[in-house]
Amino acid sequence: MIGACKSGCKAFRAVHKTIYEEHSTMEPKNVLLEMRDYIVEMGAETINWCMQCGLCTNLCPWRLMPGQTSEEFNIRHMQRLGQMGIEGFEEENVLFACSTCGMCQDNCPRGVKIIDNVRAMRASIIGGGMPPAGLRPILGSCHANGNPWSGPREKRTQWQQGLEIPRFGPDTEYFLFVCCHSCYDPRSTKIARSIAQLLLRGGVSFGTIGVEENCCGESMRKIGDEELFQKLATANTELFAANGVKKIITTSPHCLWSFKNDYAELGAEWEVTHYTEVLAKLVAEGRIDLSAKSGKKTAYHDPCYLGRHSGVYDAPRQLLASIPGAEIKELPRSRQSSLCCAGGGGRIWAEVPMGERFGELRVMEAIDAGAEVLATSCPYCVNMITDACNSLNKQGALEIKELSELLAEGL
Q1: pLDDT tens across 147-199, in order?
Q2: Shared domain check, 269 and 297
Q3: Counting Cβ atoms within 10 Å, is residue 163 exposed (0-12), middle (13-18) or buried (19+)?
Q4: Cβ-count burial of 111 within 10 angstroms (0-12 exposed, 13-18 middle, 19+ buried)?
Q5: Rounded to whole angstroms, how far apart are CA atoms 341 and 176?
Q6: Helices within 108-184 (DSSP H only)
Q7: 3-state secondary structure of 274
Q8: What CATH number has the domain bearing residue 193?
Q9: What's the rounded Cα separation, in Å, for the pair 162 and 209?
Q10: Where are the extended beta strands (E) located within 216-296?
Q11: Integer Cα distance of 169 and 275 in angstroms
Q12: Residue 41 neighbours by CB under 8 Å, 6+ apart
């Protein structure tokens, strides 16, 4: 755990100055215990554990950025409003700013499940039929098409064209679940194809089910649409059971986390693995031979949902180290202290002005570390960091790659 701030710390003084100003200038507001109790019922079971120390706010990546959202979003203050049932937390720049990176939760001295609290507070608003305007098409598409990208269900497997991807059957060991983003987004489909090519080269027994698959629902639940998540999860659970799925390989850390945690709450008992863990084992066993040399200085960005949330740090680095000629550069904020890309918690659909994107900090960190390539192992991270790199006009200085793409180039 990162140590709690001392009274002489600049960040400590800043946060407690904010607390003082809130209490000295705030107009009287009604405490609504009914709202507080409703938030707890929606899943914020630990919200009253919070003692308002402010460590969460100090560690939040929004503190690193300028702009309106940074000024308005304070996770400590948001928790306090939820504790008291006081109006104000429902403002879009407050309630939907959290990217659920987990930095605050991992270091909370009281063990408050801050992400569950955020999800419950969002659910109290979404459940009342009041989602932000920018999220309505996303939620609507998931209801209608089983994915948040407005992609027709019949085109879910289009990324497989030209590849001999078998259909999952009774004798297949692994079900490959491809993230919706990598099924429909043109940039991200390259990730799905690279992963499938590597699994085929390694002789893995795997297959997909097809157009009947639905979004895992992780982002929908984090947004606060519990009803939609339950609908998607129930459909997937029934589909997987009907097809005899026992082991799952995911292309996205968000799907990994959801299948391991959200679905476990519903009674699912699958063995779920991220593709990097499978490939690391194949490379170690000599079943995948990477012969093409890279010769590029490469840094690795730890995705929040693969690292902090799921504890997978070594497998991606082992894979990077297996690429002949690659010179690995470790970033200053890595592993448990990795900087969030800002794509989690539904933020991948947020419109963020240039100069206020977490990914911009990450791009400059990689360049300052001497990297020519910044690799990661999450489709959301690729999306967010690529956008940041483009906004900084640094495409010529730094190449953003998904780890599977680097590995496939080395075959």
Answers
A1: 999 999 999 999 999 999 999 999 999 999 999 999 999 999 999 999 999 99
A2: no
A3: exposed
A4: exposed
A5: 25
A6: 114-126, 136-145, 180-184
A7: strand
A8: 3.40.50
A9: 17
A10: 247-250, 271-274
A11: 20
A12: none
Residue 327 one-letter amino acid: E
Within-domain flag for 262:
yes
User: 330 vs 10, 203, 275, 311, 389, CA distance in Å?
Assistant: 28, 31, 21, 18, 19
Q: What is the pLDDT of residue 30?
A: 63
274 and 295 belong to one structural domain = no
229 and 306 share one domain: no
27 shares its domain with 141: no
Q: What is the CATH number for 352?
A: 3.40.50.10700
State pLDDT tens for residues 313-342.
999 999 999 998 889 999 999 999 999 999
Task: Name the residue range of residue 395's domain.
Answer: 289-409
**Residue 353: exposed, middle, or buried by beta-carbon count in 10 A (0-12, 13-18, 19+)?**
exposed
The last residue of a domain, from among 225, 246, 280: 280
Q: What is the pTM of this model?
A: 0.91
pLDDT, tens digit (0-9, with 9 covering 90-100), for 45-58:
999 999 999 999 99
Distance CA 173, CA 187 (A): 28
User: Is 318 in the same domain as 403?
Assistant: yes
Q: Looking at residue 21, which CATH number applies to its domain?
A: 1.10.1060
Q: How many percent of the chain have pLDDT more than 90?
A: 80
Task: Report phi then psi at 108, rounded to 5.
Answer: -65, 125
Tens-place pLDDT, residues 338-362: 999 999 999 999 999 999 999 999 9
Mean pLDDT of 295-311: 95
Q: Is residue 1 in some structural domain? A: no
Residue with tokens 């030209």: 162
CA dihedral 394, 398, 401, 405 (to 10 degrees): 130
Mean predicted lDDT score pLDDT of the chain: 91
Last residue of a domain, one of 220, 245, 280: 280
How many separate domains does the chain show?
Answer: 3
Residue with tokens 């692994």, as numbered in its chain: 174
- For residue 405, give both structure tokens: 């793409």
Which residue type sits at 405?
Answer: E
**CB neighbour list of residue 261: distance below 8 Å, 6 or more residues apart:** none
Q: Which residues face 402 on adjacent strands?
A: 376
Question: How is residue 79 written in tokens?
Answer: 């928790």
The answer to the question of residue 4 being in a domain is: no
Instruction: Please indicate, yes or no, if residue 169 is contained in any of the structural domains.
Output: yes
**Shared domain check, 196 and 143:** yes
Indicate whether 374 and 239 sit together in one domain: no
394 and 300 co-located in one domain: yes
